[in-house]
Amino acid sequence: MDFNEEDSYLMLSGIQHFQFCKRQWALIHIEQQWEENVRTVEGQYLHQKADQPFIREKRGEKLIVRAMPVKSNELKITGICDVVEFIQDHNGVEIEGAKGKFTACPIEYKRGKPKVTDADILQLTAQALCLEEMLLCEISKGYMFYNEIKRREEVHLTVDLKNKVREITAEMQDYYNRRHTPKVKTGSFCKNCSLQHICLPELMNKRSVKSYIEGRICE
Ligand code: SF4
Fold this sequence. Notes:
binds iron/sulfur cluster; globular; 7-stranded mixed β-sheet; 9 helices; 219 residues; alpha/beta
């Protein structure tokens, strides 16, 4: 593997941005623009608890690994799993530094509540694909933990979801290789975008983005 090639792997967490708005993803991941807003700060606070590099904890038959770096050479993505639970299973795979065999189960932490879109689930699926490639195993389920409802929800990581992640990451790679930032295409989702005044600077000077977007929606 060429080191420089690996350096150019895309961030796995970008799948969420890409699903939210392709232009927002490109501004962040191609043009390296970033604006912190309340959402990202709160999200980071929640992640701090999970982001203690490589902390391993044994609980009964489970080995819990936090902030586990993962990557996929097939998808050319890299990222961090908030938590991976390794559960003892004689049909599982061996992992470094532990006795026995295990199945792996990724868990992703989110600030809010379950979304109507599948953006969170696709991010979790991408983590599972990385783990499958790294550990040479198959992962069929994971969990989303939502801080607002203080509960984790089981997610079936189906073939369809995995194929969708492959399609999305291929499209992201294509945009990235062409350094292509899609043109503005606003919608109601723009109200929750932290890059409004980078994406829509002229509008910001003339009238509020909110009123512009509401105007567009009513058109
Ligand atoms: S303001 Fe709207 S169109 Fe622009 S990046 Fe944000 S979500 Fe996308």
